[in-house]
């Protein structure tokens, strides 16, 4: 899926796509016009288009306070 297809599927602009995916417009711009968007982002777009909330693992926290240095 290309970024324009993703925006069309969600009925939004590229800036709107960035907002819906929690990204910056600069991140969206890096995808380019002729390349496929990353698979994780395609999954998110398809889930949002279907009216579902995508399941995304949250970032793993570093537990440095309990490690022995």
Describe the structure.
- This protein has 69 residues and is mostly helical.
- The protein has a domain at 3-49.
- It is 45% helix and 0% strand.
- The protein is built from 4 helices and no strands.
- The longest helix has 11 residues, at 39-49.
- The model has no long low-confidence stretch (mean pLDDT 86).
Main features:
mainly alpha; 4 helices; single chain; 69 residues
- Counting DSSP H or I runs of 4 or more residues, the number of helices is 4
Q: What's the helical proportion of residues?
A: 40-55%
The biggest beta sheet reads: none
Low-confidence stretches: none
| Average pLDDT number | 86
Count of DSSP E strands? 0
Strand content: under 5%
- What would the principal axes of the Cα set say about the shape? globular
Distance between the termini: 45 Å
Structural class: mainly alpha
Radius of gyration: 15 Å
Order of helices and strands: HHHH
Blueprint (SSEs and pairs):
Blueprint: H1 3-9, H2 14-21, H3 25-29, H4 39-49
């Amino acid at each position: 899926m290309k970024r324009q297809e993703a925006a069309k599927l969600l009925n939004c602009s590229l800036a709107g796509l960035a907002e819906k995916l929690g990204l910056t417009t600069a991140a969206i711009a890096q995808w380019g016009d002729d390349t496929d968007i990353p698979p994780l982002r395609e999954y998110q777009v398809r889930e949002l288009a279907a009216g579902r909330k995508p399941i995304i693992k949250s970032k793993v926290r570093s537990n440095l306070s309990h490690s022995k240095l």
